[in-house]
């Protein structure tokens, strides 16, 4: 999972305060009356600073990328820290450029990151194996065994699936395990010394009990009966809910963020969360009958439930909001990365033709061309599968563009097919959710691909046959949402998270809502029928084509 792979994801385009409040902003920064949100996404580490009213004061970012090493998708933790420090330095410079002051302390800090995956440490705090991210699909045996054992869907990417696969494979490091966590939990641990997780992030490690807001005790007992050599409860982080104090920034943690020694210790930290939770916060969709779609390197939908699902579906994960309320999640490993690759190709063509365009302009031209495409994309199909996709039954991915001889290959149809392709696997999962008759009043969307007004939002509404709303904070995404959670923790408010967001953060927010167009709905339905049938081609490509540098 991730913060979005974005069309020139420059959140600074929506940052700032009015000229009349520049002095107030500078005073707030100098006094440390601010909240800092850090999010480690799939392609970018973002840091966002907000004031008391949740307005963005400054931002920083740093690009990074996963690596496919020994057939494992991973990130170096050294790269995580160098990226965090670079993004923090960028934020400090941004604050100085805007207000003439450099922050040296904060009221609150929060850390968010890609959910799931597997980070394992021994008693000395040493990492035992390389970080195994959510993108890996090598845990099929473990996930199937746990799903049967628990009577709940345990996805391939969940931390417990990675741990259990290591047990099944008799990996030597299992004997040395002292602690397992997520990326957000790891960074928080290093900043505070506390091994905790927000309940939303924890719900992607192991199933959560909706009543107790912590791991399901009965399922822990079942697992420990199956694998008596492991004290699973002792290996997992403590679970906290939004609003709780999750520790303070230590001197050692401050030095990790700011090696210049300027940053003071002492800021309150919020429970670390996953990017799904910060996406819910960023779109004000933490109450029942609300939902959101986050489109980035991965794409996923979150729908807050009024009642339990009637049966187990491999397409649907049961997770929680940052407050611990149950959520049905449709998670797809592949989102906008292939779309971004095609945009890069068209940008290179424009430059070679002597008419260079910046990234924003390339996306704008291509997205608006898609509006002129046929409702079913003219018979073109686009598969965005760079990695495996469990919902589509794929252990690995092979990006494809497929068409029949009688299809209409035009730029508008090609781009509409690419945008539809981002939503294709998501729509397969959402069709399952519709069969559960889950109540949903409106979907909110965020991510960089929604920055071009009226295009991706319109096509998503057609794909889901539901109204889709986008807020002006949409492109700021999870880093802003995490900053809001940090402010909530520091406020020591007795309000629920839903009330805090509704009454304090989003009271004056502007949402632009697009209703589904009947022609788009019918066209996407035709596209999806062909897309489903064409998955046989994708599976054949996985079987026939071996990635460069690997062997079958």
TrEMBL record:
Keyword Kinase recorded: yes
Going by the entry's taxonomy, the superkingdom of the source organism is recorded as Bacteria
> Carbohydrate kinase FGGY N-terminal domain: which residues?
36-256
InterPro entries recorded: ATPase_NBD, FGGY_C, FGGY_Carb_Kinase, FGGY_N
Q: Does the keyword Transferase apply?
A: yes
Residue span, Carbohydrate kinase FGGY C-terminal domain: 292-490
Which GO terms label this protein's molecular function in UniProt?
kinase activity
Question: Mind listing the UniProt keywords for this protein, alphabetically?
Answer: Carbohydrate metabolism, Kinase, Transferase, Xylose metabolism
Entries under SUPFAM superfamilies matching the protein: Actin-like ATPase domain
Task: Offer one example of a GO biological process linked to this entry.
Answer: D-xylose metabolic process
The entry's family comment says: Belongs to the FGGY kinase family.
PANTHER family documented for this protein: SUGAR KINASE (PTHR43095), XYLULOSE KINASE (PTHR43095:SF5)
Task: Name the chain's protein.
Answer: ATPase
């Amino acid at each position: 999972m991730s913060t979005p792979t974005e069309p020139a994801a420059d959140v600074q385009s929506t940052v700032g305060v009015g000229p009349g409040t520049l002095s107030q902003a500078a005073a707030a920064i100098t006094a440390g009356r601010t909240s800092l949100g850090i999010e480690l996404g799939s392609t970018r580490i973002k840091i966002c600073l907000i004031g008391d009213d949740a307005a963005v004061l400054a931002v920083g970012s740093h690009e990074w990328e996963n690596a496919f090493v020994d057939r494992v998708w991973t990130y170096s933790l050294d790269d995580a820290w160098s990226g965090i420090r670079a993004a923090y330095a960028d934020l400090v410079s941004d604050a100085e450029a805007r207000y003439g002051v450099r922050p040296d302390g904060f009221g609150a800090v929060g850390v968010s990151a890609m959910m799931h995956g597997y980070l394992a440490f021994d008693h000395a705090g040493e990492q035992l194996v390389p970080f195994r991210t959510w993108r890996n699909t090598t845990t099929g045996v473990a996930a199937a065994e746990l799903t049967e054992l628990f009577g709940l869907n345990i996805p391939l990417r969940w931390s417990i699936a990675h741990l259990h696969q290591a047990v099944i494979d008799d990996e030597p490091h299992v004997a040395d395990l002292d602690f397992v966590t997520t990326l957000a939990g790891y960074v928080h641990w290093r900043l505070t010394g506390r091994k905790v997780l927000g309940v939303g992030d924890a719900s992607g490690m192991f199933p959560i009990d909706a009543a107790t807001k912590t791991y399901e005790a009965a399922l822990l007992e079942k697992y420990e009966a199956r694998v008596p050599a492991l004290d699973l409860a002792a290996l997992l982080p403590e679970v906290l809910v939004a609003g709780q104090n999750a520790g303070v920034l230590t001197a050692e943690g401050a030095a990790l963020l700011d090696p210049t020694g300027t940053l003071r210790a002492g800021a309150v930290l919020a429970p670390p969360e996953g990017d799904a939770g910060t996406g819910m916060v960023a779109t004000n969709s933490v109450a029942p009958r609300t939902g959101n779609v986050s489109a980035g390197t991965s794409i996923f939908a979150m729908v807050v439930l009024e009642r339990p699902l009637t049966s187990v579906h491999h397409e649907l994960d049961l997770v929680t909001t940052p407050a611990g309320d149950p959520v049905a999640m449709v998670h797809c490993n592949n989102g906008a990365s292939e779309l971004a690759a095609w945009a890069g190709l068209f940008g290179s063509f424009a430059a070679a033709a002597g008419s260079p365009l910046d990234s924003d302009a390339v996306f704008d031209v291509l997205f608006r061309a898609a509006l002129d495409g046929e409702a079913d994309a003219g018979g073109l199909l686009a598969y965005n599968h760079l990695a495996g996709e469990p919902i589509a039954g794929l252990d690995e991915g092979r990006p494809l563009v497929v068409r029949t001889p009688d299809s209409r290959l035009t730029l508008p149809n090609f781009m509409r097919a690419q945008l539809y392709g981002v939503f294709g696997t998501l729509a397969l999962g959402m069709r399952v959710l519709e069969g559960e008759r889950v109540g949903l009043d409106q979907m909110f969307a965020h991510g960089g691909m929604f920055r071009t007004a009226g295009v991706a939002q319109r096509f998503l509404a057609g794909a889901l046959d539901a109204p889709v709303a986008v807020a002006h904070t949409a492109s700021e995404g999870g880093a802003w949402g995490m900053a809001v959670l940090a402010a909530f923790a520091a406020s020591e408010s007795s309000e629920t998270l839903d009330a805090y967001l509704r009454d304090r953060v989003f009271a004056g927010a502007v949402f632009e809502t697009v209703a589904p167009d009947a022609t788009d709905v019918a066209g996407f339905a035709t596209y999806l029928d062909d897309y489903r049938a064409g998955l046989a081609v994708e599976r054949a490509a996985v079987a026939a084509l071996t990635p460069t540098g690997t062997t079958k």
